[in-house]
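Review box. Two proteins, two foldings.
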Amino acid sequence: MSAEGLSYAAAGVDIEAYERALEKVKPLIAATHGKEVAQGVGPFAGLYALPGGGHLAASADGVGTKIKVAIATGNHRVIGADIVNHCVNDIATAGARPLFFLDYFATGKLDPAVFTQLIEGMTEACRSAGCALLGGETAEMPGVYALGDYDLAGFIVGLVDAGARREPAREGDVLVGLRSSGLHTNGYSLARKVFEGVALTPDLSAALTAPHLSYLADMGRLRWKAAAHITGGGIPGNLPRALPEGTAAVVNKTAWRPNPIFAEIRKRGGVSDNEMWGTFNMGLGMILVMDPKDVPEGALVVGEVVKQSGPERVELH
């Protein structure tokens, strides 16, 4: 049955409420920072200065309610890879190479087969990223998690080498998009609401369990100034985090075609255009800010950096 006008907030996730709550607690967080903290809350990764001149980059994240899709399809290995790749991408925006990763797995009752799949996914992704799965925590909490349910979070630390410097983004730079495989690990509460009661065909299962891609190798081959990992909040919510004050981004929505799963969500759920772009990555998992002269032939140019002329930091055309 088709629903009308579904939204992320109506599905139980209110991003704006979270942002208001975060603004209230930012002073508490900042009060813990000493001179070693070079970058705190706001960007995709925190930066901690090392005595030798380099920086440790750190991030923590989860995979959201994609876990429910994994439970329904029996594909848990992708969740293990997803959590590593999500965290790798976050610190990659700081130009960091991953050093080590830790996980937190919580469940009502441990299912060894599920746990093994998750570890297989995590170790494969860690090997691809060149980082160690250093350890973690496994917690059984009956009464907190229903039998069969679980949660998975990841924590990563990487290194930005001493002397590594990037030119600041500026007006006239271009935006280069790196394509996503689909939803990655964001927007699943809304997507699950849209497909509630719908039979999971092989094609739909494949679309909903497409892996969260790692962009570490692609970013290592390109000369970029700043990067935005497009996760919860979509392009409007994430791209400004890569732009300096006084600048904005103009994004050409016709420069690429989003994955078919997004059109299916929009149509079946009656989801508005603004809701789609403010919730999902819409086909781009990473956006790089680059000098036009550094853009290689064949790259997907999706917009440009302009001088900010109003309150909006991202214009979608």
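Next protein.
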Amino acid sequence: MRHFIFVACSAVLLGACSPELNWRDVGFDGTRLKAQLPCKPDRATRTVPLGGVPVDMQVAGCESGGAMVAVMTAALPAGTDALAVMQGWQQATLANLQAGDAQRQAWLRPGMLPLPAAQRVATQGLRADGQAVSAQAVWGALSEGDHVRLVHAAVYARQIAPELAEGLFDGIKP
């Protein structure tokens, strides 16, 4: 799963956009979830194992000003332990980055579930080609009827502009 998420983000984010930070609303099929991305996103949907069960993960991402940004979301089957899955997703992402110490803080948007793993994380790591990269990411969850939808957004760049990360994370609306 770690490899897929990294490959999916990389593949989706290969397209460049212009102009930089041209914010636009992005919706996701089958959900009320909305996000704002700073450039025209590429999209992909793929079935991946998340928490030991196959789920359809939707990814929208692009490249802007040398930074790769992406928003991913997946609806978990009813009865799935959303907290455990979210924690596993975080661990997989950080392991894939070969991340050092990560700074963590609670991240809760209005309308989202107050899970302990709903966090904003900032860290340093390595890209697939071995180059150093800064990463900032958030994970959250929202209730949709009988199931929970997980949301993950990330920014990867040599140096992350604060307005880019803030705009991406503040633009997520359940």
